[in-house]
Design brief:
This protein is of the alpha/beta class. The chain has helices at residues 6-13, 23-33, 84-90, 98-105, 121-124, 128-131, 149-157, 182-198; strands spanning 41-48, 60-64, 75-78, 94-96, 113-116, 160-164, 170-177, 209-216, 222-224. The protein folds into 2 domains: 16-69 and 160-228, Ribosomal protein L1/L10, rRNA-binding domain (Ribulose 1,5 Bisphosphate Carboxylase/Oxygenase), CATH 3.30.190; 75-157, Ribosomal protein L1/L10, domain II (Rossmann fold). A 4-stranded antiparallel sheet has the order 7-1-8-9. Strands 4-3-5 form a 3-stranded parallel sheet, with helices on both faces. A two-stranded antiparallel ribbon has the order 2-6. A hairpin with a 5-residue loop joins strand 8 and strand 9 (222-224).
Protein backbone atom coordinates (compact mmCIF):
# COMPACT_ATOMS: atom_id res chain seq x y z
CA UNK A 1 0.00 0.00 0.00
CA UNK A 2 1.33 3.44 -0.96
CA UNK A 3 2.40 5.69 1.88
CA UNK A 4 0.36 8.80 2.54
CA UNK A 5 1.99 12.19 2.09
CA UNK A 6 2.04 14.68 4.96
CA UNK A 7 -0.91 16.60 3.46
CA UNK A 8 -2.87 13.38 2.92
CA UNK A 9 -2.28 12.35 6.54
CA UNK A 10 -3.51 15.77 7.69
CA UNK A 11 -6.63 15.42 5.53
CA UNK A 12 -7.41 11.91 6.82
CA UNK A 13 -6.94 13.14 10.41
CA UNK A 14 -9.78 15.64 9.90
CA UNK A 15 -12.26 12.98 8.75
CA UNK A 16 -13.95 10.86 11.40
CA UNK A 17 -15.22 7.76 9.59
CA UNK A 18 -17.80 7.21 12.36
CA UNK A 19 -19.56 10.52 11.75
CA UNK A 20 -22.13 11.25 9.04
CA UNK A 21 -22.59 14.93 8.17
CA UNK A 22 -25.35 17.02 6.69
CA UNK A 23 -24.67 18.15 3.12
CA UNK A 24 -23.46 21.65 4.01
CA UNK A 25 -21.03 20.43 6.68
CA UNK A 26 -19.76 17.68 4.36
CA UNK A 27 -19.23 20.23 1.58
CA UNK A 28 -17.33 22.55 3.91
CA UNK A 29 -15.14 19.68 5.09
CA UNK A 30 -14.35 18.62 1.52
CA UNK A 31 -13.12 22.13 0.76
CA UNK A 32 -11.00 22.06 3.92
CA UNK A 33 -9.29 18.72 3.24
CA UNK A 34 -8.57 19.25 -0.47
CA UNK A 35 -4.93 20.19 -0.92
CA UNK A 36 -4.23 19.73 -4.62
CA UNK A 37 -2.89 22.63 -6.67
CA UNK A 38 -5.69 22.54 -9.25
CA UNK A 39 -9.43 23.09 -9.06
CA UNK A 40 -10.46 19.59 -8.03
CA UNK A 41 -13.75 17.98 -9.00
CA UNK A 42 -16.26 17.22 -6.26
CA UNK A 43 -17.85 13.79 -6.64
CA UNK A 44 -20.90 12.17 -5.11
CA UNK A 45 -21.25 8.41 -4.67
CA UNK A 46 -24.71 7.14 -3.74
CA UNK A 47 -25.23 3.46 -2.93
CA UNK A 48 -28.77 2.30 -3.63
CA UNK A 49 -30.67 -0.70 -2.34
CA UNK A 50 -31.47 -1.91 -5.86
CA UNK A 51 -30.53 -4.90 -7.99
CA UNK A 52 -29.27 -3.37 -11.27
CA UNK A 53 -29.51 -6.78 -12.95
CA UNK A 54 -33.29 -6.42 -12.86
CA UNK A 55 -34.71 -4.14 -15.56
CA UNK A 56 -37.42 -2.86 -13.21
CA UNK A 57 -34.79 -1.72 -10.68
CA UNK A 58 -32.56 0.21 -13.08
CA UNK A 59 -32.19 3.82 -11.93
CA UNK A 60 -31.10 6.36 -14.51
CA UNK A 61 -32.03 9.92 -15.36
CA UNK A 62 -30.94 13.49 -15.95
CA UNK A 63 -30.64 16.47 -13.66
CA UNK A 64 -29.70 20.11 -14.14
CA UNK A 65 -27.38 21.21 -11.35
CA UNK A 66 -28.42 24.70 -10.12
CA UNK A 67 -24.83 25.96 -10.09
CA UNK A 68 -23.47 23.98 -13.04
CA UNK A 69 -20.62 21.49 -12.96
CA UNK A 70 -17.78 24.00 -13.12
CA UNK A 71 -16.48 22.10 -16.11
CA UNK A 72 -16.22 23.48 -19.64
CA UNK A 73 -18.24 20.79 -21.39
CA UNK A 74 -17.34 20.29 -25.04
CA UNK A 75 -20.46 19.64 -27.09
CA UNK A 76 -20.72 18.24 -30.61
CA UNK A 77 -24.02 18.96 -32.39
CA UNK A 78 -24.68 16.60 -35.28
CA UNK A 79 -27.35 18.45 -37.24
CA UNK A 80 -28.59 19.18 -40.76
CA UNK A 81 -27.44 22.47 -42.35
CA UNK A 82 -30.71 24.28 -41.54
CA UNK A 83 -30.04 23.81 -37.79
CA UNK A 84 -26.37 24.81 -37.76
CA UNK A 85 -26.79 28.53 -37.07
CA UNK A 86 -29.05 28.09 -34.03
CA UNK A 87 -26.89 25.43 -32.36
CA UNK A 88 -23.77 27.54 -32.90
CA UNK A 89 -25.57 30.44 -31.22
CA UNK A 90 -26.57 28.09 -28.38
CA UNK A 91 -22.90 27.43 -27.67
CA UNK A 92 -22.04 24.13 -29.37
CA UNK A 93 -18.27 23.69 -29.73
CA UNK A 94 -18.47 21.59 -32.88
CA UNK A 95 -21.29 21.73 -35.42
CA UNK A 96 -21.80 19.68 -38.57
CA UNK A 97 -22.75 16.24 -39.75
CA UNK A 98 -21.02 14.11 -42.37
CA UNK A 99 -17.52 15.45 -41.74
CA UNK A 100 -17.81 14.68 -38.02
CA UNK A 101 -19.31 11.25 -38.66
CA UNK A 102 -16.19 10.49 -40.71
CA UNK A 103 -13.92 11.81 -37.95
CA UNK A 104 -15.68 9.62 -35.37
CA UNK A 105 -15.40 6.65 -37.71
CA UNK A 106 -11.66 7.32 -37.71
CA UNK A 107 -11.57 7.26 -33.90
CA UNK A 108 -12.05 10.92 -32.96
CA UNK A 109 -14.04 11.33 -29.74
CA UNK A 110 -12.60 14.52 -28.25
CA UNK A 111 -15.95 15.75 -26.87
CA UNK A 112 -17.91 15.31 -23.65
CA UNK A 113 -21.45 15.19 -25.05
CA UNK A 114 -23.01 14.63 -28.47
CA UNK A 115 -26.48 15.98 -29.24
CA UNK A 116 -28.40 15.27 -32.41
CA UNK A 117 -31.77 15.03 -34.18
CA UNK A 118 -33.98 11.93 -34.53
CA UNK A 119 -33.45 11.94 -38.32
CA UNK A 120 -29.68 11.62 -37.85
CA UNK A 121 -29.73 8.64 -35.48
CA UNK A 122 -29.78 6.19 -38.39
CA UNK A 123 -26.35 7.43 -39.44
CA UNK A 124 -25.03 7.13 -35.88
CA UNK A 125 -26.06 3.49 -35.44
CA UNK A 126 -22.94 2.02 -37.11
CA UNK A 127 -20.75 4.14 -34.81
CA UNK A 128 -22.21 2.62 -31.65
CA UNK A 129 -19.13 0.44 -31.08
CA UNK A 130 -17.04 3.63 -30.86
CA UNK A 131 -19.47 5.91 -29.02
CA UNK A 132 -21.16 3.37 -26.73
CA UNK A 133 -18.17 2.37 -24.58
CA UNK A 134 -17.29 6.06 -24.12
CA UNK A 135 -20.79 7.01 -23.02
CA UNK A 136 -21.18 9.35 -25.98
CA UNK A 137 -24.08 7.76 -27.86
CA UNK A 138 -27.00 10.22 -27.91
CA UNK A 139 -30.17 8.96 -26.25
CA UNK A 140 -33.73 10.36 -26.21
CA UNK A 141 -33.98 9.44 -22.50
CA UNK A 142 -31.17 11.86 -21.64
CA UNK A 143 -32.47 14.62 -23.92
CA UNK A 144 -29.57 14.38 -26.36
CA UNK A 145 -31.77 13.23 -29.25
CA UNK A 146 -34.33 15.95 -29.88
CA UNK A 147 -35.75 18.28 -32.51
CA UNK A 148 -34.86 21.22 -30.25
CA UNK A 149 -31.11 20.67 -30.44
CA UNK A 150 -30.32 24.27 -29.49
CA UNK A 151 -32.12 23.84 -26.15
CA UNK A 152 -30.27 20.55 -25.57
CA UNK A 153 -26.95 22.33 -26.12
CA UNK A 154 -27.90 25.11 -23.68
CA UNK A 155 -29.01 22.56 -21.08
CA UNK A 156 -25.74 20.62 -21.27
CA UNK A 157 -23.67 23.79 -21.14
CA UNK A 158 -25.76 24.99 -18.19
CA UNK A 159 -25.06 22.01 -15.93
CA UNK A 160 -27.31 19.20 -17.12
CA UNK A 161 -25.82 15.77 -16.42
CA UNK A 162 -27.09 12.24 -16.86
CA UNK A 163 -26.57 9.48 -14.31
CA UNK A 164 -27.03 5.74 -14.15
CA UNK A 165 -26.64 3.15 -11.41
CA UNK A 166 -23.67 0.87 -12.08
CA UNK A 167 -23.56 -2.91 -11.72
CA UNK A 168 -22.59 -2.59 -8.04
CA UNK A 169 -25.65 -0.46 -7.24
CA UNK A 170 -23.80 2.86 -7.01
CA UNK A 171 -24.41 6.14 -8.81
CA UNK A 172 -21.26 8.22 -9.31
CA UNK A 173 -21.47 11.83 -10.48
CA UNK A 174 -19.27 14.92 -10.58
CA UNK A 175 -21.33 17.73 -9.05
CA UNK A 176 -18.98 20.70 -8.97
CA UNK A 177 -15.51 22.00 -8.15
CA UNK A 178 -13.78 22.71 -4.85
CA UNK A 179 -13.61 26.38 -5.86
CA UNK A 180 -17.40 26.51 -5.41
CA UNK A 181 -18.76 27.90 -2.16
CA UNK A 182 -19.81 25.12 0.22
CA UNK A 183 -23.48 26.04 -0.07
CA UNK A 184 -23.34 25.71 -3.87
CA UNK A 185 -21.73 22.27 -3.60
CA UNK A 186 -24.46 21.29 -1.15
CA UNK A 187 -27.19 22.66 -3.44
CA UNK A 188 -25.90 20.67 -6.40
CA UNK A 189 -25.59 17.50 -4.33
CA UNK A 190 -29.09 17.92 -2.94
CA UNK A 191 -30.57 18.42 -6.42
CA UNK A 192 -29.04 15.14 -7.61
CA UNK A 193 -30.05 13.19 -4.50
CA UNK A 194 -33.63 14.48 -4.56
CA UNK A 195 -33.91 13.55 -8.25
CA UNK A 196 -32.72 10.02 -7.47
CA UNK A 197 -35.20 9.77 -4.57
CA UNK A 198 -38.05 10.55 -6.97
CA UNK A 199 -36.88 7.75 -9.28
CA UNK A 200 -37.21 5.01 -6.65
CA UNK A 201 -38.47 1.86 -8.41
CA UNK A 202 -41.80 0.55 -7.09
CA UNK A 203 -40.27 -2.93 -6.78
CA UNK A 204 -37.58 -1.86 -4.31
CA UNK A 205 -38.20 -2.97 -0.74
CA UNK A 206 -36.31 -1.85 2.33
CA UNK A 207 -33.75 0.95 2.42
CA UNK A 208 -33.42 2.76 -0.92
CA UNK A 209 -30.62 5.27 -0.19
CA UNK A 210 -28.09 3.11 1.66
CA UNK A 211 -25.12 5.48 1.85
CA UNK A 212 -23.85 8.76 0.44
CA UNK A 213 -20.23 9.84 0.23
CA UNK A 214 -18.76 13.13 -0.93
CA UNK A 215 -15.16 13.40 -2.06
CA UNK A 216 -12.85 15.46 -4.22
CA UNK A 217 -9.93 14.51 -6.42
CA UNK A 218 -7.42 12.66 -4.19
CA UNK A 219 -9.27 13.50 -0.94
CA UNK A 220 -10.69 11.08 1.64
CA UNK A 221 -14.44 10.42 1.39
CA UNK A 222 -16.81 12.19 3.76
CA UNK A 223 -19.99 10.39 4.81
CA UNK A 224 -23.30 12.19 4.37
CA UNK A 225 -26.26 11.29 6.57
CA UNK A 226 -28.39 9.21 4.18
CA UNK A 227 -31.27 8.95 6.66
CA UNK A 228 -32.26 12.55 5.94
CA UNK A 229 -33.30 11.69 2.38
Amino acid sequence: MAKLTKKQKEAHAKVDVNISHNLLDASSLIKEITNVKFDASVDLAIRLGVDPRKANQMVRGVVTLPHGTGKDVKVLALVTPDKEAEVKEAGADYVGLDEYLQKIKGGWTDVDVIVTMPSVMGKLGPLGRILGPRGLMPNPKTGTVTMDVAKAVKDVKGGKIDFKVDKTGIIHAAIGKTSFDADKIADNANELIQTIVKLKPATVKGTYIKSIFLSSTMSPSVAVDAKTF
